[in-house]
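Sample entry (394 residues):
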Amino acid sequence: MSSSPGRVSPVAMGLLLGFGACTAACGLVVGAGDYVVGGAHDGGPAGTGGDADMDAQPVPDAVGPGSDSTPPPDAGPPPPDDGPTTTSDGGPAPACAPGSAGLPTDAAFQQLVKACVLAATCDPVFFPVTVSQCIATDYLDTHFATKCLAGITSCADYYACQGTRIATPSECSGASGSSTDIGACNGTVATACFFDGNGLVSNCAALGGTCTVYHESATTSDTGAGCEILPSCADPTDGSVHCSGSSAYTCVSTDTTTNLGIAAESCATGSTCWTDNDRSSACLATTTACTATGTTCSGDNLTTCESRSSGNELYTNSCSVAGLACTPSSGGTAASCTAPGCANSGCTESCLDVTHLQACIGGAPYVVDCTSLGFNVCASGSGAYAAYNFCAYQ
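Predicted structure, serialized as tokens:
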């Protein structure tokens, strides 16, 4: 048995494969002038998001053992190894720092940030893209047939939109108290709790499956639960989400000779379950077919031809929604949404400390306070083909 704060690997419903959570050692310093989404928790129930203030606010200058080990406020990471630190005319490169990269400060941008952080946090498995990618490319408005994710303000909203979410600590207190995995059905709702208090909740009526409790393969005392859409499946150990018609599912291992296909997502009208080259599957909007995969610019729009299992699909992302511009690569073979002066910033999405998540929006660092969204920590983990950072309960 193993799991981790706020996230379950694609096969964890049967195998409970996990990953290491971020600790305070993930990041040490937040320099003066940095900004954070959200202020102090507004006192609402954990995980509801409440009406937390999303205005940018300064982050404390340092997180460390004592004032004698605190670097100067302007201390920052060394220059990136993969790009010049001067402009084309030989002058110094423009600074790329929070508050100076031209990112918006209006309510629409704050909602974009909040929705992307919650999408990555409330999804029981790994969301298709990182928080940074989600914000920079306005992913929630572009890649989904329904737009409900773009307006979420809590995990309850995510659940109403997707039919699944992470469980709250109170929902899984029985499992954590007994150090046992516990699966249960309450009507059409499946709750799978893991021994450390993490878990997932699935609405089988929305996902199109039958609520099922099963014994896990590791021990006969541990049980799991989920929305069964397939009575048997082939490989519970490949670490992937698969497609079955209009559903995405994981193949979980039981203590019998039959493995179960447990629903992870049900594709809405206008979307299809696609599997990309990295064997990652999700329900994404069906758009126009395209030939050559890659990215190009059309004004401030980023046009992407993505490789899918049933053919390439064309998506057009608006960079300007996040205050970015579409920028071709130096060789002209690719493009991306970038903030002014930040294309070669070297910014890396990460947990700066226990509660602060740093996103890199077009290369510009942007800090989110997880406590402002009702969560206790910032956590990190590796999915099928990317490193993820998200907020978690513990």
